[in-house]
Amino acid sequence: MDGKQIFLGNYYYSYTILALFIVSESILFRCSYELNEYENRHCFH
């Protein structure tokens, strides 16, 4: 692997981690919100 492939690999890896973090945070936020609104019906089927 040359430097460009390594750079692109780290770039996509960091953005994948960032996207997973944002998705998990939004799911946790929605579940905690729905826990108050709907007794958590939509989170844990």
Automatic annotation (TrEMBL):
Sequence intervals crossing the membrane: 12-31
Keywords: Membrane, Transmembrane, Transmembrane helix
UniProt entry tagged with the keyword Membrane: yes
Protein name, UniProt field: Uncharacterized protein
